Amino acid sequence: MKIEIRDLHFTYPAGVEALCGISMTIESGEQVAIVGQNGAGKTTLVKHLNGLLLPTSGEVRIGGWDTRSQPVAKLARRVGYVFQNPDEQLFSKNVETEVAFGPRNLKLDKEQVQSLVKDALAMTELSDKTETNPYDLSPTWRKMVALASVISMDTDILVFDEPTTGQDAMNIARIANVIRTLRQRGKTVITITHDIDFCAENFERVIALSQGKVLLDGKANEVLGQEEILATTYVDPPQLTRLGKRLGFKNIVRTQEEFLAALKLK
Ligand SMILES: Nc1ncnc2c1ncn2[C@@H]1O[C@H](COP(=O)(O)OP(=O)(O)OP(=O)(O)O)[C@@H](O)[C@H]1O
Ligand SMILES: [Mg+2]
Hints:
This protein is of the alpha/beta class. Helix content is 37%, strand content 22%. The chain has a six-stranded mixed sheet with strand order 6-7-8-3-9-10.
């Protein structure tokens, strides 16, 4: 399902112009990371994908639907959004009910709901925590519940707002696994992240925002290689990329595999 954003401007009622003419197309099945300094407009941008915010001018189309002409409930069938803070999202008394809420709301039959919930719990490694109250879980696991409750909706597009913030290495690896599984299923995954290594290891396309505009948009290696431009939005390329550059590698590297391959060529 294609995402088309054309000349999107958005001004908050208080008068802050958060998005100043953003255009991009995201094809079905793409995995995109969005980076950029605090206040660059990342969250404001992704909140336009499911109609939580509507353009002040310009347009956002999801699979051809103009978000202004669709109710949020209908867009929720196409775009799942995991909030940066899971506590804004979770409200049920146990994990299973929480994860079942979305698909039940879609009025699917009981077996379908069960199978979606089971699958989302397995993907997020929560199958042994179904009876637990999300608030009795650590923040790390609460994050997984927030992911599961969106994955269970089986939308074509998933948006994760800072999924790795405050997570330990183990859970970051779990989240990377979830993203890999979603990729294999052909889902579009858009992830906002400040974790540049996570970005480099898991995404083929990177979009850098700065002050409400697109600063860079392209293949991960091309974007992460632009050290000076990224610095203007306070993003440092991954250590490996910088080291590769200092070692004089011909190509930009971002993963350990690429680094080792480039080292052998030298
Ligand atoms: N509810 C709001 N009312 C008024 N201004 C807002 C509101 N939410 C965000 N802003 C402003 O809009 C701009 C973009 O904010 P946004 O939250 O989209 O940035 P961000 O890139 O997600 O930042 P962060 O990395 O800190 O999450 C900032 O100047 C911010 O202060
Ligand atoms: Mg944000």
